[in-house]
Amino acid sequence: MTAMVLSFLLPAQTTPGSTPAAPASPPPDPTAGLTGVSLWDYIKDGGLISYIMIALSIVALALVIRNALYIRRARHIPLDLAQKLDMAMAAGSLDDAARACSGEHADSFLARVMGMALERVRRSAFGNLEIRSAVEDAGAAETERMHRMNDYIGIIAAVGPMLGLLGTVVGMIGAFRTIGTLTGAARSTQLATFMSMALVNTAEGLIVAIPCTIMFAIYRRRIEEIVDDASRVMERLISHVSAPAPAPSPRPSPRPVAAAREVDRA
């Protein structure tokens, strides 16, 4: 009995010439296969629609950079152009003002609007009386043109989630078809492939749409601020040449009744 108890408490002794037992192997790590997965592997899992989303994101990035460089207040309301127009129109020289609009800042909002308005005034039979309506019409057209430049980002923001949803639907169709046609290990492999396609396309659609939506709102607000600032500048400019409203003619005072009677007697 004593020998049996000691055999449980004391470590086992290896006899000379005997081979020790091999240690037990550790359990497999379930995350070992995920460490080698790269971003490109996820993109490939998305299939054809995933490549389309990558191309769309490159176009969106180019448009965001283009708008960041183009939609700036200093570009569309240059200080030196505003000063030249102010001096020319205060002196009543519309020709000098038109030449200033066709100079180095011809691509700015202020130059485009004032250039079109002055050209309309010079061709109109009403002359300076036409300048206010000409500036309003030219400003509305130029504002619409700037918003159209920003609308491309809004289109991508709307199309991105729809393409992601299309990829999700394609992946789910493949997953359900796999469940109905395959069995065993092959079914598990194909099912995982199609589910990965669905989720990757969903994620890519959101990754493209969220930044585009934010930048579209930012640039839209910036365009409105530029238009408001330019409107104040142009209001001061056209006040130099717009004709004042004619003063109302004084009403003739009625003749006194007594004076009228004396004139009639005479």
Describe what this molecule looks like in 3D.
By secondary structure, the protein is mainly alpha-helical. It has one domain. It has 10 helices and no strands. Helix 3 runs parallel beside helix 9 and helix 5 runs parallel beside helix 9. The longest helix is centred in the C-terminal third of the chain and has 55 residues. It is rod-shaped. The N terminus is likely disordered.
Largest sheet descriptor: none
- End-to-end C-alpha gap: 165 Å
Low-confidence sequence ranges? 1-23, 30-34, 256-260
| Anisotropy-based shape | rod-shaped
Number of helices: 10
What is the averaged pLDDT score? 79
Rg over CA atoms, rounded to whole Å, is 40 Å
- DSSP, total strands: 0
What is the succession of H and E elements? Answer: HHHHHHHHHH
Share of β-strand residues:
under 5%
The assigned structural class equals mainly alpha
User: How many structural domains in the coordinates?
Assistant: 1
- What is the helical fraction, as a range of percent? over 70%
